[in-house]
Amino acid sequence: QVQLVESGGGLVQAGGSLRLSCAASTSVFSIIRLNAMGWYRQAPGKQRELVATITRGGSTNYSDSVKGRFIISNDNAKNTVYLQMNSLKPEDTAVYYCSANDATRGPRYWGRGTQVTVSS
């Protein structure tokens, strides 16, 4: 079992920045079947969507809507994944969730989420 705890959300003006953190209870990448960690978000009335992922090997993937503005990174020594969010827009407003992903089945563990609100 892996516990994930997100932090760093809050209220920010458009154009501002936030950094989200996701602390894992264990070294996710030491678990063979887990090969990536990700950030997803869910806005009111919408489905949860992928924001970014990072693999055990350090490869990253971003949704088109955040590419060039958000950066995902990880600190293996701290069992923590980060999401640096720059040039925030009101449409980035959502609850942001951290996940630990199975190589074939996608997200297997989820955090409880952290609210990000971007005011115009």
Please provide a written account of the structure:
The chain has 120 residues and is an all-beta fold. The chain is 0% helix and 55% strand. It is built from no helices and eleven strands. Strands 2, 4, 5, 6, 9, 10 and 11 form a seven-stranded mixed beta sheet that branches. The protein has a four-stranded antiparallel beta sheet with strand order 1-3-8-7, with no helix packed on it. Strand 4 and strand 5 form a beta hairpin.
Proportion of beta-strand residues: over 45%
Amino- and carboxy-terminal Cα gap: 40 Å
Q: What percent of the residues sit in helical stretches (DSSP H or I)?
A: under 10%
The major beta sheet can be summarized as: 7 strands, mixed
Low-pLDDT stretches: none
Shape: globular
Count the helices. How many? 0
The total of beta strands comes to 11
Using only C-alpha atoms, the radius of gyration works out to: 13 Å
SSE pattern: EEEEEEEEEEE
Query: What is the average of the pLDDT values?
Result: 96
Structural class by sheet pairing and helices: mainly beta
